[in-house]
Amino acid sequence: MMRNFLSGIANVKDMTISSSTLEIIYDYSRCEPLPLFSNLSSLRVEFHDYSWEMLPMFLESCPNLKYLVVGSTRYLDRKRIDILSRPRCLLSSLKYVKIARPLKGEPKEMKLVSYLLENSKILKKLTLCFDGSMKKEESVTFRELLTIPRLSTSCQVVVL
């Protein structure tokens, strides 16, 4: 059933997906390879917790993705396996990323930002929204952002 569902949506151009659906897709990918989402150019992922470490697995199946928005609806603290530590693939078509979820500068958040900056060949703009309570830690977080290597030499990081 999952194979038929994924094959049925493999040609979409724009997609919004929840973290719970992404988790089901991840579980499926451990048994069967995911189809390529060759037409997908715009993706919005709504996370309900910090489960975004599954995101790179899905991005590997999106060779022509240009726009990525990472959003959230609420904060929960659930433990997840750390998929961001697996071998990384180059995100060769990704141009614009916005992490709309208010970031607090936590290690998992910075790992996602690092993953995107270090693996996106033609990334032009990464927009980050920070939590208002971070003011005391701003300088540490900004210094950390400045030290993250970028694969794209023309990438602009915008902090809101």
TrEMBL record:
Residues 88-160 form the FBD domain. SMART domains: FBD. SUPFAM superfamilies: RNI-like. This is FBD domain-containing protein. It comes from Arabis alpina.
